[in-house]
Design goal:
The complex is a heterotrimer of chains A (215), B (313) and C (291).
Chain A lengths: L3 H19 L3 H38 L5 H22 L11 H33 L5 H16 L8 H42 L10
Helix pairs in contact in A: 1-2, 2-3, 3-4, 5-6
Chain B lengths: L1 H10 L3 H10 L22 H4 L5 H22 L10 H16 L3 E6 L6 H20 L3 E5 L2 H17 L11 E3 L4 H14 L4 E7 L3 H11 L3 E6 L5 H7 L2 E4 L6 H6 L2 H30 L10 H9 L1
Parallel strand pairs in B: 1-2, 1-4, 2-3, 4-5, 5-6
Helix pairs in contact in B: 4-12, 5-6, 6-7, 8-9, 12-13
Chain C lengths: L1 H5 L2 H18 L9 H11 L6 E7 L2 H20 L3 E6 L5 H11 L11 E6 L4 H9 L1 H4 L28 E6 L5 H12 L3 E5 L4 H4 L9 E4 H14 L9 H46 L1
Parallel strand pairs in C: 1-2, 1-4, 2-3, 4-5, 5-6
Helix pairs in contact in C: 2-11, 3-10, 4-5, 4-10, 4-11, 6-8, 10-11
Classes of the chains: A mainly alpha (215), B alpha/beta (313), C alpha/beta (291).
Chain lengths: 215, 313, 291
C-alpha cells in the first residue's frame, strides 16, 4: 500500500490537472484552483522537513566535534537568529526608530544582499578561467564554437576603441548568430527536451513510471 | 491571419477554413451576421463548454504521442530490439563511481535546484536510484545535497531503494542526503563547501540548473574531481560543456534510465519520441516549403491551413 | 598543453579583478546602439493607451539586481510617465524590498498615487503554481495587498482587474531564472494569450529568441539590453511633467553608470577572448613539443 496509494494519488491529480488544462468548464477550473492551492500549502509546510534535516545533521556534527562544526554552529546561529529577530519584530517585542522591520532589513541589506551579489559576481572570474582552460580549437566544431563565442562577445558590447563601422559589423554578426543560429539550435533542444518531458510526464500521470518511488 | 481567412470565407468557405476555425477556436460563438461559425461552438451545452477548442490540436498531438508510446512499449516488451546509440556521458557514470571507489573518496550527486514538480528533478531521482545502487555495490559513500525539502524526501527514498536494489540496505546513510538551503546561492556555496572539504572524487550533476552551474562545475574542477553533468536546461549547457569532463545534452538526459537499465517500457518511450520528432521535422519542412511558395514567409506565424488555402483555394 | 593547465587560475582571477576595479575607478562611458528587441520593448509600452493596466512581475533577487534593477526602475519611469497603471507582483521572495523602494521613489514624482495608479501585491510562494493561481483568480491569490494589508477590493485600481488577467493589457517580467519569463509564457502567454515583455539576465537571453516575436513582444537582455532601454527612456524623459526632479536625475545617473559598465564589460570580454587565444597558443605549442 505504501506504493499503491501515492501512485493512485499521482494518477488522479495528474489527470485532473490535465483535464483542467483542456477544459474551460467551471467544475474543472474549480478542481484546478483547489489542487493548486493545496500544492502551495503543501510546499510551504514541507519546508519544515528541510529545516528538520538541517538541524538534525548540524547538531549531530556540532556535538561530535566534526572538523566542520564551527561552520555548522554559525549556520544554526544565523538560522535561529534571523528567525527570532523576525518573530520578535512582528510581535513588537523589539522595536526600532528606523521602521517596522528595521533589524530584518538591516540583515537583508548588509549581509544577504552583498553575499548574494558576491556569489553571482564569481561567475565573471569562473567564466574567464573556464574559457582559458576549455575552449580549444581541437576540432572543426570546437573552432566554430569558440569563434562564434568570441563574435557574440564582441557584438554584445560597445566598441569605442574601434571605428563605428567595426562595432556595427560585430553587432550585425552577433544579431545574426543569436536570431538565427542560436534560435534554431535552442528551438531544437527545447523541442527534444519537451518531448522527453512530455513522455516522462505521461508515464507518471498514467502510473507507468514508478521507479522514483520506493518499493 | 484573420483578414485573409475571413476573405476566403466570404468567397467559398472551403472545408479547411471551417476546420481551421473549429480547431483554433477563433471567432467562437457567432459571426457578425449571426451565423454559427463551426459546429458545436458557441451553442449552450456545446463542445466548447467542455473542451477549449483552441487547445484541441495539442490534445490530439498528446493522444497520438501517448498511443505511439504505449504501442512502442508493447513492441519492446514483446522482444523487439530498440537500439540506442552510445552516449559517452552515460558510460562515464560508472567510470566516475569506479574511480571514487579506487581513491576511497565519496561520490557527490547534485540533483539540480528545482522542485519535485519539475520533470527533470523527478528524472534525476530515477537516475539517483541507479547511482545509489552502484555506490552501494562498491561500498562508496554517496553525498546528495538538496535545495528543496520535498526533493530531500524523494532523494532519501531513491538512495534507500538503490541500496536495497544492490542488496545492501546497510549502505544507506541518512545523514548523507542533506538539505542545505532554499536559497540558490546559499545552496551553491554549501555544495562548493562539500566539494572543497570532503573532496569527492566524482561529481555527478544531473537535473535543472541555473546560474550556479558554472560555479559548481569550476569548483569541482579545482577540487580535482571527475565531473559528469547533464541537463535539458539549454542555457546552462555551454557552461557544463566548458567545465565538465562529460556532458549529457538536452533530450539525452531523458534517455539516461533507458540507456542504463534497458527497460522495455523506457526504450519504447524513446522510440515514440523519435517517431514524433520525425513527424515534426516533416511538418517543418512542409511548412517552410508552403510558406515560401506562397510568399507568406514574412508572416510571423503563418497558419498551415491559410497557406493551403492560398495555394489551392 | 601542460603549460596551459599549469597556469594558476588565481592569476586569471587577479587579472579580471584588477581590470574591473581599475575601470570602475577610471569612469569611461560609451552609448550603445539600440537593438530591435529593446526598441520593441519600448514601443510596446509606448503603444499602450493612457490609463491601461499592466502587470509587472519582479522575479529577481539581489544576485541579479545589478542586471535587472536598472531596467525595473526605467520601466516604472516609462509606465508612470505614460500614465499606465501597474499591478505589481513578485514570485521571488527577495524582490519586494526592491519593488517598494523603486515605486515609492519614482511614482509620486509623476503625481501618481498608491491604490489608483499602482498596487503592491507582493511575493507569492509556489513559483509557476503561484503564476497559475494569479492567472486563475487574482483575488483568491492575493486577498490583501502587501503594503498595509488593505483588502484588495478596497483598492480602486483593482476594481478594473478580474480573473484570467481580465483588464490587464500587458504582462512584464524582470526575470532572473526560475520562475521567470519561460514560466510566465506557459502560464499567462499560453493559457490566456497575454502579450508579454521581459527583461532577463544575460545568461537567460539566448532562450528568448525562440519565443520572439510571437510569444514575446520584446525584451531587454542583460546589462546590454538594460543600457539600451535606459537610453531610450532617458531620451524621452523630457516630455513628461514631473513634480520631483530627483528620481529623474537618479535615472540619468543609472544610465550613465550602465554606460560605464558596458565599457568595463567590453574590456572583460576582450580579456576573455585574449585568454582563449592564449590558451590555444599554449595548447598548440604543447602539442608541437610533444610531437
Amino acid at each position: 500500500m505504501k506504493r499503491e496509494i501515492p501512485i493512485a494519488l499521482t494518477v488522479i491529480c495528474g489527470l485532473l490537472i490535465t483535464w483542467a488544462f483542456f477544459s474551460p468548464s467551471e467544475l474543472s477550473q474549480a478542481v484546478n484552483v483547489e489542487l493548486t492551492a493545496w500544492a502551495s500549502i503543501f510546499f510551504a509546510v514541507a519546508f519544515l522537513l528541510g529545516i528538520g534535516n538541517l538541524v538534525r545533521i548540524s547538531l549531530k556534527q556540532i556535538s561530535a566535534r566534526h572538523p566542520d562544526w564551527p561552520y555548522k554552529a554559525l549556520l544554526m546561529l544565523m538560522l535561529f537568529g534571523y528567525l527570532s529577530i523576525g518573530l520578535l519584530e512582528i510581535h513588537g517585542v523589539i522595536e526600532s526608530e528606523y521602521g517596522d522591520k528595521a533589524y530584518q532589513d538591516w540583515i537583508y541589506e548588509r549581509i544577504f544582499k552583498p553575499l548574494q551579489s558576491t556569489m553571482f559576481a564569481l561567475l565573471a572570474f569562473y567564466i574567464a578561467s573556464a574559457a582559458f582552460r576549455a575552449f580549444r580549437a581541437r576540432s572543426m566544431e570546437a573552432t566554430l564554437l569558440l569563434t562564434a563565442g568570441a563574435l557574440v562577445m564582441l557584438g554584445q558590447v560597445p566598441l569605442p576603441i574601434a571605428p563605428p563601422e567595426v562595432g556595427a559589423f560585430f553587432a550585425r554578426v552577433q544579431g545574426f548568430l543569436m536570431a538565427y543560429v542560436n534560435a534554431a539550435g535552442q528551438s531544437a533542444i527545447i523541442m527534444g527536451a519537451a518531448l522527453g518531458t512530455l513522455a516522462t510526464g505521461l508515464r507518471i500521470v498514467l502510473g507507468l513510471e514508478r521507479s522514483y518511488l520506493s518499493e | 491571419m484573420i483578414q485573409p481567412l475571413l476573405a476566403l470565407q466570404d468567397a467559398v468557405t472551403p472545408w479547411w477554413v471551417d476546420l481551421n476555425l473549429w480547431l483554433s477556436g477563433m471567432g467562437r460563438g457567432t459571426d457578425a451576421d449571426g451565423s454559427v461559425l463551426a459546429p458545436g461552438i458557441g451553442t449552450p451545452g456545446g463542445l466548447d463548454d467542455w473542451i477549449d477548442t483552441g487547445k484541441l490540436p495539442t490534445l490530439i498531438a498528446i493522444l497520438i504521442y501517448a498511443f505511439l508510446m504505449l504501442r512502442s512499449q508493447a513492441k519492446a516488451k514483446a522482444g523487439a530490439e530498440i537500439p540506442i546509440r552510445r552516449i559517452a556521458g552515460l558510460d562515464a557514470l560508472d567510470e566516475a563511481i569506479g574511480r571514487s571507489t579506487e581513491m576511497g573518496r565519496p561520490v557527490l550527486y547534485v540533483p539540480g535546484i528545482d522542485e519535485i514538480k519539475e520533470i527533470q528533478t523527478i528524472y534525476s531521482m530515477m537516475i539517483l536510484r541507479h547511482v545509489a545502487r552502484k555506490t552501494a555495490e562498491y561500498g562508496t559513500p554517496l553525498i546528495v545535497p538538496v535545495k528543496d525539502s520535498v526533493v530531500m524526501t524523494f532523494a532519501e527514498e531513491a538512495c534507500k531503494q538503490g541500496c536495497l536494489d544492490a542488496g545492501r540496505p546497510d549502505a544507506f546513510i541518512a545523514d548523507n542526503v542533506r538539505y542545505l538551503s532554499n536559497e540558490q546561492f546559499a545552496y551553491c556555496a554549501g555544495v562548493a563547501g562539500i566539494m572543497n572539504r570532503e573532496k569527492p572524487a566524482a561529481n555527478i550533476m544531473l537535473g535543472m540548473f541555473f546560474a550556479e552551474s558554472l560555479i559548481l562545475a569550476e569548483t569541482g574542477y579545482a577540487s580535482g574531481a571527475i565531473q559528469v553533468a547533464g541537463t535539458a536546461k539549454q542555457h546552462q549547457l555551454p557552461f557544463f560543456v566548458a567545465a565538465c569532463d562529460y556532458t549529457i545534452i538536452g533530450e539525452e538526459y531523458f534517455a539516461v534510465t533507458a540507456y542504463l537499465t534497458r527497460e522495455p517500457g523506457l526504450l519504447g518511450t524513446i522510440r515514440a519520441a523519435d517517431i514524433i520528432k520525425v513527424i515534426v521535422i516533416i511538418l517543418f519542412v512542409l511548412g517552410v516549403i508552403l510558406a515560401t511558395a506562397t510568399g507568406n514567409g514574412t508572416e510571423t506565424s503563418p497558419s498551415l491551413f491559410d497557406v493551403y488555402g492560398r495555394l489551392f483555394g | 598543453m601542460a603549460q596551459a593547465t599549469d597556469l594558476d587560475r588565481r592569476w586569471i582571477f587577479l587579472a579580471m579583478g584588477v581590470l574591473v576595479v581599475g575601470l570602475f575607478a577610471s569612469g569611461v562611458s560609451s552609448p550603445m546602439p539600440v537593438s530591435r528587441y529593446v526598441s520593441d520593448y519600448y514601443d510596446t509600452i509606448e503603444a499602450l493607451p493612457e490609463g491601461s493596466v499592466v502587470m509587472l512581475s519582479a522575479d529577481f533577487d539581489p544576485a541579479s539586481a545589478a542586471e535587472l534593477f536598472p531596467t525595473y526602475q526605467a520601466t516604472i519611469h516609462h509606465l508612470m510617465r505614460r500614465g499606465i497603471r501597474v499591478v505589481n507582483v513578485a514570485t521571488w521572495p527577495a524582490a519586494p524590498p526592491y519593488t517598494r523602494k523603486a515605486f515609492d521613489a519614482i511614482a509620486p514624482a509623476y503625481g501618481r498615487e498608491y491604490g489608483t495608479d499602482w498596487v503592491e501585491l507582493g511575493f507569492k510562494p509556489g513559483d509557476d503554481v503561484a503564476m497559475a493561481q494569479i492567472g486563475q483568480s487574482i483575488r483568491t491569490t492575493y486577498p490583501r495587498d502587501d503594503r498595509d494589508g488593505t483588502a484588495i477590493d478596497q483598492l480602486p485600481l483593482m476594481s478594473e482587474v478580474g480573473d484570467s488577467f481580465e483588464g490587464i493589457e500587458l504582462l512584464l517580467t524582470m526575470s532572473a531564472g526560475y520562475p521567470g519569463i519561460l514560466e510566465w509564457i506557459a502560464q499567462a502567454g499560453g493559457r490566456y494569450d497575454m502579450t508579454m515583455l521581459a527583461a532577463t539576465t544575460a545568461v537567460q537571453t539566448p532562450d528568448l529568441f525562440a519565443y520572439y516575436p510571437t510569444q514575446l513582444a520584446g525584451f531587454c537582455g542583460g546589462a546590454t539590453g538594460a543600457t539600451q532601454y535606459l537610453q531610450l527612456v532617458a531620451n524621452s524623459a523630457g516630455t513628461a511633467t514631473i513634480m520631483d526632479q530627483a528620481p529623474l536625475d537618479e535615472l540619468l545617473a543609472v544610465k550613465e553608470k550602465n554606460q560605464k559598465r558596458m565599457v568595463i564589460q567590453m574590456w572583460g570580454h576582450l580579456l576573455i577572448i585574449a585568454l582563449i587565444v592564449l590558451g590555444n597558443v599554449l595548447y598548440f605549442r604543447g602539442r608541437k613539443a610533444v610531437a
